[in-house]
Amino acid sequence: MDKEEQYLDIYSFRKINSWVEIAKAVGMSSPEAAEKKYKTIDGYISEQIGLNLDDTVELGKKLAPRIAEIQYVYESRFYNNEERKKGFGEFKKFYQWYKKQPRKCFYCRTSEDVTADLFKKKILSSKKGSWTGGLEVERKDGLTYNEGNCVLACPLCNNAKSDLISSDDFKNYIASGIRKYQGAKYRKDQRSALINGLLNWGKSIWPRKRA
Asked: What's the gap between Cα 125 and its chain centre?
């Protein structure tokens, strides 16, 4: 494991990123004792990964976008879901599975960008505030959360499928209609945007009539 992965393993996956957790990790009596010894969180990490403090601080700055992205996945896809914790065992395992998944719906094959764009523009909407158009973790058989049974699905497919319909049947008989529906909505919006763009361009170059 290289220095970057070691840093992320400590800070983002094992969550040893507070004085309370550091004190637990090194067997100290209190968070205050840990802070007194290491001075900064990076001071602790530098000792663990065998890198001097200045280089560790720079490494943390470099990794900031990845740390933020990992934290987003943790908070939005894992933290509050006890069944996923039980099924995957640890967040790092879940995250590695999540990052390997194609960024399109397993069932209808619509890309995440297309669905997210439809939700962003309110072409599709829901009373569920958590629905932003992003891909959702779906259990194919409706039972356990694990690598072999989970896929990523768009909100429409995830909402439409139930334990009454098998994964294969939903994919073969129903998902194609959802794909056509989203595709039609997206293409209509793109055509409207193109037409409006051309009209505005024409107005900008067309000479105004004199009074």
From this structure: 19
Q: Identify which of 136, 179, 182 has the alpha carbon closest to the alpha carbon of residue 159.
A: 136
Instruction: Output the CA torsion sign for 106, 111, 113, 116.
Output: negative
List pLDDT tens digits, range 22-41.
999 999 999 999 999 999 99
Residue 11 token pair = 């800070």
What is the residue-averaged pLDDT of the chain? 92
CA distances from 82 to 16, 93, 118 (A): 21, 15, 30
Residue 144: name the closest of 76, 85, 102 by CA: 85
The length of the chain is 211
What CA–CA distances, in Å, run from 51 to 35, 86, 202, 203?
19, 35, 60, 61
User: 21 and 15 in contact (C-beta within 8 Å)?
Assistant: yes
Tokens of 60: 């943390």
pLDDT at 1: 77
Residue 25 near residue 15, CB atoms below 8 Å? no
The pLDDT of residue 19: 97
Reported in sequence order, the residue ranges of 36-181 that DSSP labels E, i.e. its strands, are 136-139, 150-153
Q: Check residue 149 and give its pLDDT.
A: 94
Residue type, 20: V
